[in-house]
Amino acid sequence: MRKLWGGRFVKRTDPLVERYTSSIAVDHRLAKYDVLGSIAHATMLGRCRIIPRREAGRLVTGLKAILRAIEEGRFRWDPSAEDIHTQIQAELAKRVGSTADLLHTARSRNDQVALDLRLYCRDAVGQLRDGVAQAQRALVELAAREDDVIIPGYTHLQRAQPILLAHHLLAYVEMLERDQERLADALKRINVLPLGAGALAGTSLPINRFKVATLLGFDRVSDNSIDAVSDRDFVAELLADLALVAVHLSRLAEDVILWATEEFGILSLDDAVATGSSLMPQKKNPDALELIRGQTGQAFGGLVSLLTVLKGLPLSYNRDLQWDKAALFGVVDGVGEALRVCERLLRHVRIRRARAQQLLAVDTICATDLAEHLVQRGVAFRQAHEIVGRLVRACEREGRRLRDFSLAELRRYDAHFDESARRRLDPRRSVELKRSWGSTNPRLVRQMIARWKARLKK
Ligand code: ARG
Questions:
Q1: Which residue in 33, 57, 173, 315 has the fewest CB atoms around it within 10 Å?
Q2: Is the distance from the beta carbon of residue 89 to the nearest atom of ligand 1 less than 6 Å?
Q3: Class assignment of domain 110-148+164-204+223-358?
Q4: Would you state the CATH architecture of domain 12-105?
Q5: Cβ contacts of residue 421 below 8 Å, gap of 6+?
Q6: Does the CB atom of residue 327 touch ligand 1 within 6 A?
Q7: For the whole prediction, is pTM greater than 0.90?
């Protein structure tokens, strides 16, 4: 395929070098954005009379035909092209002949690729935000369906206090909401037009960058041509945001994996979303969740890969930057898929209510409630902690439960215990008596569910 830069060369490029420097295998995915950018550029060139209007019209017609081919899946990327920009240029020449030579006026591949990538990121953010919202909806629906289920809450992976399962699920909704905010915020820095920077210095031709920005829906135009072709912060930022999405999904995956074990047994996965073992007939494995948990490796890898490419890179454009796309595409695809799988899995879990209740039978989980009972009767918290601690020790020593202690026995530990003390050992009362904002109180949690439902309405 004809190179975009053949003029000053006499020799053919070495095939190995040609293959190594080629990026078409990765950047063919930018085809649509490349064409959209070119349509806007050609339109502007015509309106500014930099090229004849009729020729601009022919360029746009040719480009629109290519766009249709891409959208209808008829576009095949050509491994002999150096990159997608070269191939689109060649496709256009096939359609409009030498008029195609006008398209690259006042443009370099440096500002062109930056433009394509920004357009791609803008779409990707939209799709990822939909994916996050879908996962949030699945969490909220599960929380709503099981809004009365109480489970042991853990700190240090040790039983801590009774909580509502719904409260736990909503914690993930909050995490994902912060991801939404970060992605929305990243858009501010993505949605800036770099085109018109030329190779790095701008152009002596009377282009109108603001026109192009309007045509392509950009909020702003970059203010420095050198920065415009060198900057990949917007990619790094998107990757950082996705690294956090991956972290959140991995934590959710881990919770569900633990809960699906016989040891926890809080839920079971539907056959449709579990996998078996080739050797052990009894196994039902959460492979999809493990892949989500492990996908953080890919996500962090993408971020570190790009940051490493950028570090110490002199201004302005350097070919090193070509590595940005492989990192980005893999992570956008991977996290997008993980979000969809996560949603599917959440819609296929069955909560094992009886087992959850069984887990709460060890009533030392209500030890804090007992201490708060004493505090409400004037005992200093430190003292109350100590007193209940001694009771727990007695339970362990004598193999008893807290509820096996009569009031008279309790009072031997502290005279402030009264008849209502033993009722504090009920996990349901434990959650019901919570009153702080943001707590696991069922009334508050139901309010939160309603709030999320309204907020996540499509
Ligand atoms: N394939 C290149 C990239 O992805 C396009 C820009 C090439 N520019 C250049 N001056 N060699 O970055």
A1: 315
A2: no
A3: mainly alpha
A4: Orthogonal Bundle (1.10)
A5: 370, 373, 407, 410
A6: no
A7: yes
